[in-house]
Design a protein that fits this description.
With 76 residues, the chain is mainly alpha-helical. Helix content is 49%, strand content 11%. The chain has two domains: 33 residues; 39 residues.
Amino acid sequence: MSHYHADNGRFADNAFINDAKEQGQSISYCGVNAHHQNGKAEKRIRDLQVQARVMIIHAMHQWKDAATPQLWPYAV
C-alpha cells in the first residue's frame, strides 16, 4: 500500500507516521465526523450490522424464550 486514508485516532501517532514515511508511504486524514470519506469501512460496518440484525431476528423467531435483543452485542 502506498497511501493511507485514516481517522485521526491511532493513525496520527508519531510512531505510525514515521514508519509510513520510512516505507515510502503517505497518509491523509478524514475530517471529524466525516464518515462519508471512508466509504469502504462504512459499508463493511453496515453489512455487519445488517447480518447481526438478521441473526437476532431469526433467533428470536426460532427460540422465543432464549433469544432477546440483549444478545445484539454478541451477534456483532
